[in-house]
Write a structure and sequence with these properties.
single chain; alpha/beta; 12% strand
């Protein structure tokens, strides 16, 4: 088991403390990491240079989330649609993924980060699959941040897979009355993981790109014009500050989610019923 994240120092430590005292830190943050190619093109560099610099953004974001006490961080690393890119770029991306896993896993393990993955992992090159399985096994007992890598993933793939499995179980006796939101969620690849509180989308695009379609139903969304290779913890802090200003009503009215003196709100009771806390 790892020892925990290296603590922030200096001005960064003050900024993190201000975030903690300023409101709720999201339990689960999901990020659509977009704009690597455009970042490189603006600098007259090959696309792979943007992907390489993007690894630095991942490293800094993971470290900051661990220090802040974020429990889950899901990164949209490679979508099912990304297989349609030129074969040369896909091959480079797979090699970069393999290198990043080999280079970063020991650091993540030391910082008590647990690695998980969602997606059609069987579609990845065998060498990448083997490395992922080794890294998941190595970090499985860590109790800090859970880093979820969405690889060969799409929301439609996730839901279609869930429906097929539900139909299979229906043939074995699952009844129509048993099919609830909770049951469907238990068939998704994110079963056991709370839905994201905050979705960050880089590159200024206003779409969710087939990512966590079921799970993002009530997620707060933050759009930044920064390309992913230029994303660092300062922009993560800006996203969290923006999140802390939101009133999450989950279809209710403001009065229902405000805490009365000495009592629970409808919202707090809802959260307790969902999380079991």
């Amino acid at each position: 088991m790892g020892t925990g994240p290296q603590q922030a120092t200096g001005e960064d430590r003050k900024l993190q403390e201000k975030l903690r005292t300023g409101g709720e830190i999201p339990r689960h943050i999901a990020i659509i990491m977009d704009g690597n190619g455009r970042w490189a093109k603006k600098r007259g560099m090959p696309r792979i240079a943007g992907h390489t610099e993007g690894v630095e953004s991942v490293r800094d974001t993971v470290e900051a989330c661990g220090q802040l006490g974020v429990r889950f961080l899901t990164l949209y690393a490679f979508s099912t649609e990304n297989w349609k890119r030129p074969q040369e770029e896909v091959s480079l991306l797979m090699r970069l993924l393999l290198k990043a896993l080999k280079d970063e896993t020991d650091r993540l393990h030391t910082n008590n980060v647990r690695i998980q993955t969602i997606g059609d992992i069987a579609a990845l090159p065998q060498e990448v699959q083997n490395e992922l399985l080794d890294d998941i096994q190595k970090t499985k007992d860590n109790t800090g941040l859970t880093l979820i890598l969405a690889l060969s993933y799409s929301g439609r793939w996730d839901i279609t897979r869930a429906v097929r499995n539900i139909m299979h179980d229906a043939a074995a006796g699952l009844t129509e009355e048993q099919v609830t939101d909770e049951l469907v969620g238990s068939y998704l690849s994110t079963a056991g993981v709370p839905d994201p509180d905050l979705l960050v989308r880089t590159s200024g695009e206003f779409r969710i790109s087939n990512f966590l379609l079921w799970q993002l139903a009530y997620t707060e969304i933050y759009i930044t014009p920064r390309y992913w290779p230029g994303f660092r913890r300062d922009e993560l802090y800006a996203a969290i500050r923006d999140y802390q200003k939101r009133e999450r009503r989950f279809g209710m009215v403001s009065e229902q989610v405000r805490t009365p003196p000495g009592g629970d709100t409808h919202f707090s009771r809802l959260i307790k019923s969902v999380t079991g806390l």
